Amino acid sequence: MKLSSSILYRIASVLLLLFAAGHTLGFRATKPEWGVDALISSMRTIHFDVQGFSRSYWDLFVGFGLFVTVFLLFAAVLAWQLGGASRETLHQLSGVTWSLAITFVGITIVCCMYIFMVPIIFAAVITLCLILAAWSAGK
Which residue, 110, 83, 109, 107, is CA-closest to 97? Predict the structure, then answer.
């Protein structure tokens, strides 16, 4: 079965929304068996001044985690919009479509190097959808 670029972008969009939700709900979670309670406590309680702001490492961790969520939501909206675009429009936006696909190749690599299986799977499937969609739209 051959999937059109429109369907592939829409699938990627839904996966990106699920990825964003899972990331947002999970990135601050810890389990007692991990033995990181003391580390998390120090990340939350030790503050330092950076460029006129008092911050902790927990602030930076949460801030960058939410930064990732916002990016994933933007990517979901972009993929959805690309899924509704005409073939001619997609051809004109080939730089955008391939940039999005290549960005997710990088995200997949980062997930493989530093994260764990669920994000790796999400990133890989999204990447596959985006590459196939960009390829299909370029024909």
Answer: 83
1 membership: H or E segment, kind and range: none
Q: What tokens appear for 56 in the block? A: 């902790």
- What is the spatial distance between Cα 53 and Cα 99, in angstroms, rounded to a whole number? 34
Q: Is-above-0.90 flag for pTM? A: yes
* Predicted confidence (pLDDT) per residue in 29-58, tens digit: 999 999 999 999 999 999 999 999 999 999
64, 28 Cβ separation under 8 angstroms? no
Q: How far apart are CA 118 and CA 38, in angstroms?
A: 26
C-alpha 92/C-alpha 110 separation (Å) is 29
In one-letter notation, the amino acid at residue 131 is: I
Residues 6+ apart with CB under 8 A from 14: 76
Integer Cα distance of 89 and 60 in angstroms: 39
Token readout for 4 is 């059109």
